[in-house]
Amino acid sequence: MRILVVNVNTTESITDAIARSAQAVASPGTEIVGLTPYFGAESIEGNFESYLAAIAVMDRVMAYDQPFDAVIQAGYGEHGREGLQELLNVPVVDITDAAASTAMFLGHAYSVVTTLDRTVPLIEDRLKLSGLWDRCASVRASGLAVLELEHEPQRALEAIVHQAELAVTQDKAEVICLGCGGMAGLDEQIRRRTGVPVVDGVTAAVMIAESLVRLKLSTSKVRTYATPRPKNIIGWPGRFAR
Amino acid sequence: MRILVVNVNTTESITDAIARSAQAVASPGTEIVGLTPYFGAESIEGNFESYLAAIAVMDRVMAYDQPFDAVIQAGYGEHGREGLQELLNVPVVDITDAAASTAMFLGHAYSVVTTLDRTVPLIEDRLKLSGLWDRCASVRASGLAVLELEHEPQRALEAIVHQAELAVTQDKAEVICLGCGGMAGLDEQIRRRTGVPVVDGVTAAVMIAESLVRLKLSTSKVRTYATPRPKNIIGWPGRFAR
Amino acid sequence: MRILVVNVNTTESITDAIARSAQAVASPGTEIVGLTPYFGAESIEGNFESYLAAIAVMDRVMAYDQPFDAVIQAGYGEHGREGLQELLNVPVVDITDAAASTAMFLGHAYSVVTTLDRTVPLIEDRLKLSGLWDRCASVRASGLAVLELEHEPQRALEAIVHQAELAVTQDKAEVICLGCGGMAGLDEQIRRRTGVPVVDGVTAAVMIAESLVRLKLSTSKVRTYATPRPKNIIGWPGRFAR
Amino acid sequence: MRILVVNVNTTESITDAIARSAQAVASPGTEIVGLTPYFGAESIEGNFESYLAAIAVMDRVMAYDQPFDAVIQAGYGEHGREGLQELLNVPVVDITDAAASTAMFLGHAYSVVTTLDRTVPLIEDRLKLSGLWDRCASVRASGLAVLELEHEPQRALEAIVHQAELAVTQDKAEVICLGCGGMAGLDEQIRRRTGVPVVDGVTAAVMIAESLVRLKLSTSKVRTYATPRPKNIIGWPGRFAR
Amino acid sequence: MRILVVNVNTTESITDAIARSAQAVASPGTEIVGLTPYFGAESIEGNFESYLAAIAVMDRVMAYDQPFDAVIQAGYGEHGREGLQELLNVPVVDITDAAASTAMFLGHAYSVVTTLDRTVPLIEDRLKLSGLWDRCASVRASGLAVLELEHEPQRALEAIVHQAELAVTQDKAEVICLGCGGMAGLDEQIRRRTGVPVVDGVTAAVMIAESLVRLKLSTSKVRTYATPRPKNIIGWPGRFAR
Amino acid sequence: MRILVVNVNTTESITDAIARSAQAVASPGTEIVGLTPYFGAESIEGNFESYLAAIAVMDRVMAYDQPFDAVIQAGYGEHGREGLQELLNVPVVDITDAAASTAMFLGHAYSVVTTLDRTVPLIEDRLKLSGLWDRCASVRASGLAVLELEHEPQRALEAIVHQAELAVTQDKAEVICLGCGGMAGLDEQIRRRTGVPVVDGVTAAVMIAESLVRLKLSTSKVRTYATPRPKNIIGWPGRFAR
C-alpha cells in the first residue's frame, strides 16, 4: 500500500523528517511518499498561512499522478482536511486528529504541546470541530517557532518537556501529543523525561491510515464530504481548473 | 467610509446583487465596493470550493490598492475569515456571524435556511467556531443550489419559505437567517410569509462594519489574529509572495 | 430616531454619564433620552437589587409617553431584558449582550471586567442565557463598588486595568468588555494601557439599536417574547395595573 | 418547623391548593403557611409577569412577620429565587429545581409538562441556570393556560397525559415533572395513566425544605447569595425601602 | 421505614460510622441498617476496586432477606448504582448524587473534597453521568487515603479544610461536599473552619431516601433501569445465579 | 503479537464469532485469543449484567497465564474498561471506543445501531465518558436481543439496515457503527445496503490494539489508571484475592 504524507509547509527538510518518521513505523508492505507543496510558507504559524497550506496540500495531492491508498496531512491544527476528503475517495488522516484519537486510548485526558502561542487557538478549534476536544486537558505552547525546532533541537526539547510537565502536574494530562509535524521523532525522549505516553501525530496517522485501508474503509460520500459538484473554476493557476 | 464587500464565488452578477443590497442600507457617507475574486468556483457548495474561496478572497482584498475601512466576507458558512483578520488592520465581518449575532437580539432562538444539504455541516461548524451556536435552533437546506437562486427566484423563494416555516413550527426558531450571500434581498418577502424577523447577513454585516468603524474598534492583534510573521512564501502565483 | 437609554439604578449622575456617552457615538439624526427608574437601589450589585431594577426599568419605560424607536437597558448582567421585549414592539438591547456580541467580532475570546466579585456569577449567567458565553475567557472583578467608580475614578481605572491585564495574560482574552454601565467613557484609556480592543456596552448598544432600527428589525413575537396575554394585575402601585 | 409556601400569582384558590398539597405530605411537626403576593398577575405565563412575581414574592415574604424555617417559591420556571436567597438566611427552594432534582433520582432522563408553549423557554432557561438541564429530555406544553387548569381539570388532565406520553415514547423521558404550581395534586392520576413516576414540584420542595432544615443547612453567603449591601432604595412603594 | 445503607468497602468500622451518622439524622420512624459487602477491598480508591464493589454491593443487598424501603450506596464516586436500580423496586440513592444535588440548593457552585488524587476522575465522571456536573467548581484531593481518614482524623481534617479553603477562594465554590463515605461526621467541623455550608453525602442521602419513600416515588422501570430480563447466569459463586 | 479478545457474555459461540472476525483482519504475525468469562450472563443487555461482566472480564484476563500484548473488551457500551486499564500494563481497547473513534475519521457524524432500546442509554453514557460523543448523531435500537442476532441473522440484518437508514436520512449520520459485539461480520452487508461506511468495533479494535503495540504505547499510569494500591481484598471467590 502507498500512503502519501503531505507536509503543510514548503521546507523540504521537514518533509524528509516526517516521511522518515512515517516510514520507520509503517508495515513492511507500506510505501510512504513524502510530498512538499509547490507553494506556500516555509512554516505554518497562523490562519493565513494555514489557509494557503490547505489549498497547497490539495494542489500537491491532485498533482500526484500515481495510485495511492491513503493521504496523511502532516500539519498540526491546520485547515484543509475536509477539502481533501471531498476530492479523494481514499482515506484522509490529519495528524491533529490522529494524535488526539490515539491519546484517548491511553489516558483519561491528554494535552497538546505545540510551537508558538498564536497557534494554540487554531489547534483548539480544530480539535473542537473534530469532536476530539472533550478529553483535552490543555494546549500549551513551547514558545519556539517551527523552524527553531529544526535548528535548535536541544533547546526545543527542553521547552517541550517543560510544558509537558506542566500539562501533567497542573492540567492533569495523562498523555502528551506532540503538536507540530516538525516534532516527529521527539516522542521517545519526551516520554522518558515526563513518564507519560507521548503521541506523535505522524506515526499515529500512519497506523490509522494503514488500518482504514486494511479494513477497506474510506470517507463517507453521502453528505459533508461528497465529491464536489461539477462547476466552472476560473482563474486558478493550479490544478483545480477544469 | 469605504467598505469592501467581497463575494466568495466568481459570479459577477452575485457580486453586483450583494453590493447593491449592501449599498441600499449603508449610511449616507459609506461607499460600498463589491469585489469578485480573481479565481475560484462560480458558486461555493462544499469544503474544497470554500477553502479555495478563502484564499481567493484574501488574494482579492490584498490586490485592492485603495484605502478602505472594513471588509465584509459575503459567503455563508465559508472558510477564511480568520486569515483576513490576520492580514488586515481594519475590521473583518463574515456574514455568517453577522446574521447570527443580529438574530440573537431579536429572538430566543434562530434558524438558518441555506441552499444544499451538503453545506449544512459547514455552516454549523462555522457557527460553533464563532461561539454563536448556542441559540441556533437548526440549519435547514432549501435543496436549491446557489445558482438556482439566481435563475429561479420564485421557486427558490417558495423552498426557503417552506423550510423557514418548518424551522419556526418544528425547531422553535423565532428568527430566520438567510444562509447564502445570494439570498440578499429576499428578507422582506420571507418575513411577510412567515411572520418572523428575517435577517440577511449582508445588510447585517454592513451595520456591524459601520458600527465598528464608528467606534474605532478593530481586530485584536495580541494572539489569534496577530499579523503573520515575516517568512518566505514561495511558488504562490498570486499576491502573497514576498 | 429616538433611543431610550435606561439606567438600572436610581443615581441620576450615572444616568447622565451613560446618556452623554451614548449621545457621543450616536448618528446625527439620533436622539438619546436617558431615563432613571422611579424606584430602586442607588447601585445594583446583586440579585435582589437587580430584580427590583428589572421591574423599575420596565415601569420607567412604560411611563415614558413619547414615541421611541428602541430601548437600551444600561446595566451589566442585570435581569429584566426579556420582560421589556414582551412589553414593547421596538428593539431592546441589553448592554451585556451588546458588549459581548461586539467583542466577538474583534477577537477569538473576550473577558469582562466588572465591579464586585459578587456580581460575577450574575454576569456569567446572563451571558450563558444569551448564548454569548462560549467565547468568554473570564469575568473578573475589579473589587470596586459601582459608586466607587464615580467617586474614585483614578483608583477604579487602575483596578480595572490590572484585571484586564490578567485577563489577557492569564485567561487569554483578546478583547475586554467593560462590565458596568458606570464604566462608560473609560474604554479609550484602558485600551491604551492594555493594548487590546476595549468594548463599552453602552456605545456598542447604541450602534446595535440604531442598526436594528435602520434594518427595520424588531423582537420576534411568535413565542418567547410574545406580548403578555391580557390579564388581571392587582395591587401593583405602578403602571402595570390594568 | 414552619415553611412558607409562596404562590407566584395572585389567585388565592391556587395558593390554597398548593398549601393543601404541601401540608398533605409535610411531616407531623411541620406547619405549612400559604402566602399570596400582595400584587401581580392572576397567573404567570411570561417574562414580564414572572419578573413582577419575583419582586412580589420577595415583598410578600419580607412582610411576613412571624419566624419561619424555610421558603418554597411555588412557580414553575419563574424568576426571583436568587433574590430571596440573598434576603433570607433560611433555605429557599424553587419548585422547578425541586422537581428536576427529585426526578433525577428516579430515572435516566426526565421531561417537564407545562402550560402554554410560550413558557417553555423560561423553564428551559431556569433549568439551565440551575445546572439541572443535562438530563432533561424535553419541556412540553399542554397548551392550556394556568387558569384553565383550575376551571377545566379533566381537559387539563387529558392534555397533560397526552404530552407526558409523547415525552416518554418520543423524547425518551423516564420521569415526568409537573411544570406548573397549579398542577399540584395531579401526579397520582398521571402516573397511573403513563406508567412512569410523576414528580410534583410542590411536594418535592416540601421534602427538600424539611431536609435542609433538619440537616441545619442553609444558603451559602460567601458570594452569589451574600446579603445585599446596605444602600439607599428609593421610591419603592413596598417593603424594601430603607 | 427501613433504609439499607451499604458500605462499598469491607471495613466494618467504616460501615458502623456511616450507619451511626445516618441514624443520627433519620426520622423517628426510620430504621437504618448498615451493611458490609461480603467481599471486596478494604477501601475503594480506583476503578478496579470500585467495579468489584459495584457487584459486592448488589450481592450484599440481594442477600438481605428482610423487607426494606430504600437503599443508600455509601461510596463517593463509585460504580454500580444503575445495577441496583435495575435489581430493586425501591429507591436507590448514591451519596455522590445526594451530596451534589443537595449542595445545589445551597449555593451557585459546589466543590467536592475527596481522598486521593487518583479518585478525582472517577468522581468527575460519576457527576457527569448523573447530570450534576454543571455547577461543580472542582473536585479536589486531600491526599489522604480512605483508611488514613480513620486512623489520623486530625491530620485528615486539616488536609480537607485546606483543600476546602482553596476550593472557596480559587475555584469559587460556595458549598463543599465531603467526597468520601468515611468522612461522615466531619461536616460540622469543616463548616466552622471554612464558613461555607458543608454537605455530607450520607446524611443528605438519608433525607432523599426518606423523601422518596414518603412521596411513594421509586425508580422508573420503562427503560434504563428496567428489571433485568430473565436469562442464564452461570458460574457466579454468589447470589445472582438463577 | 498476541491480543486477547474477551467476550463480555458467557456464550461461547459468540466468543468464537468475535475471535474469528478479529483473526480475519489481524496482521500476519498477530495471534488472536478469544476468551469467555468464567461467570456472568449469556448476553448483556443492561447495567446489572454489564457490571457483572466488568468483573468477569477482569477475572478472566487475570486468569490467563500466558504473555499477551493487548486486550480487547468486546462488548458494546459495557462497564469495566477502566478497571482492566488499572490492572494491566498493556493497552486495553474497548470496541465501543474503537468503533466511534474509527468512524470519526470517515464522516462528519456517526450513529450506532444496537440491540434493545434499554441498552441505548448505556452506550450513550459510555461514549460521553470516553469523550467520543460530540460527533454522535444518534444511538438507535434494532429491537432485537443479543441472542436473536445469533438465531435469526436475516431478521436481525433487516432490522439493523432499517435503523441505519433512518440514522442516515433523519439523524444525518454519515457512518454507522455496529453496536454489539455479536454483530461482528455484518458490516459488509450493511454497507452495501445503506451506501455508507459501516464500522465493526471488533475489527476496528484489532487495528487499534495492533497500532498501539507497534508504536510501543500503553496506558498512562500517572493518575486515573495507576496500578491499584496493595490492599486487602477479602471474601472474593475469584482471582483478585491477595
From TrEMBL, chains A, B, C, D, E, F:
Coiled coil: none annotated. Pfam families: Asp_Glu_race. It catalyses: D-5-isobutylhydantoin = L-5-isobutylhydantoin; a D-5-monosubstituted hydantoin = a L-5-monosubstituted hydantoin; D-5-benzylhydantoin = L-5-benzylhydantoin. Belongs to the HyuE racemase family. Its EC number is 5.1.99.5. One of its GO terms (molecular function) is amino-acid racemase activity. PANTHER family: PROTEIN DCG1. This is Hydantoin racemase. InterPro entries: Asp/Glu/hydantoin_racemase (IPR015942), Hydantoin_racemase-like (IPR052186), Iso_Racemase_Enz_sf (IPR053714). It comes from Pseudomonas khorasanensis.
